[in-house]
Amino acid sequence: MSTKPGELHYTNVDVLAFDELGYVPCDARAADLLFQIISRRHEKASTVIATNLAFKEWGPMFHGAASLVPLIDRFTQHLVTIDIEGESYRQKEKDKPPPSRTPSSARGAPTVAVRPSAKARRTA
Known about the structure:
The chain is mainly α and 124 residues long. The chain has helices at residues 7-11, 28-41, 58-61, 68-77, 89-94, 104-107, 118-123; strands at residues 15-18, 46-49.
């Protein structure tokens, strides 16, 4: 497999997340590119997929993609599925009044703490 421009960026991150996969259908070329990325990451790094489609519903999403079966095979080899049931978070939020427009400095903006990874602490 040759590396295409931009592909290396997606293969070298610790965690790669796809949100709402299947929201927009992809052509066979996009499915093949996704397969190449997932193949390079397979058993090396974590991949998170958020979708409302079961794997059996991926055929129309990646219409005509020869790589669909091996793509699903790699996804499912070490799969951990988390099914979320209940009311949509976005639907719950739409009924709430909009937040106030008070500047963050007047509200006391939240503090965010970042803890370096163990590897970063060892090299420091």
